[in-house]
Amino acid sequence: MQMSQLECIGKGDxxxxxxxxxxxxxxxxxxxxxxDFCIRISLVSNLVxxxxxxxxxxxxxxxxxxxxxxxxxxxxxxxxNPIKVRxxxxxxxxxxxxxxxxxLCKQDKYKFKxxxxxxxxxxxxxxxxxxxxQCLMVEFFSSIKQNGxxxxxxxxxxxxxxxxxxxxxxKDEIHASSCHCKYLQQINWSSAINDVRKRxxxxxxxxxxxxxxxxxxxWKSFKINTEAxxxxxxxxxxxxxxxxxxxxYNINQHFKVHL
Length: 259
Description:
This protein is α+β, with helices and mostly antiparallel strands. It has helices spanning 2-6, 24-32, 46-54, 67-75, 112-120, 123-135, 146-167, 171-177, 189-199, 202-205, 208-224; strands spanning 14-17, 36-41, 58-63, 83-91, 97-102, 185-187, 226-228. The chain folds into two domains: 2-121, no CATH class; 125-253, no CATH class. The strands form two sheets. Strands 1-2-5-4-3 form a five-stranded mixed sheet, with helices on both faces. A two-stranded antiparallel sheet has the order 6-7.
């Protein structure tokens, strides 16, 4: 999957991603496509350990690949020569630390805060992925056949798009009605998806007049079931939760689906 995604990157692009992409050979691939990157890198990396032990906050250095990394480079047809990178230490609330690796090495042009803000821009995409994974539970397929998996996947895409369209007319109204509160309110997506799912069939079976009433009912529910927008909200990473829910079927054990 990483390789197919890298093929979409071109000159002038900038990739932001989590530590699953913070590997030497992947970053070399990104640079080879004339693009830049700003990626969170694993704290278990020897490169990161040395950086943290140094006490530095923002440095530019040459990343010298280890013997194991060189083998991965050869395996993935990547030049194993060192690359110049910039490491940025970010201290999070609660005493946690994360390290960002970026190809934007001009510290006078790209300030420390710029790098932090840049990585934060991926939050919107991460929230959309969370809707698929947690609200729609897109990994829980009802079939092990390829057509069944594709039907489940595209049905979820349709559902999220439909809820997004239905939410558009009242987003501003919800924000305006909560301006006196400590935090602005937004639609609770889990609740919104459940509301639309219960009424979905009726939208295709009822008359235009009745459908308008259904829309009114959905919007009323959206306005009631909201959640606070808390800027800068941080949570400690709980790795134990990663494998709490297991998909109904692991399609990787049966076949590869090309989406």
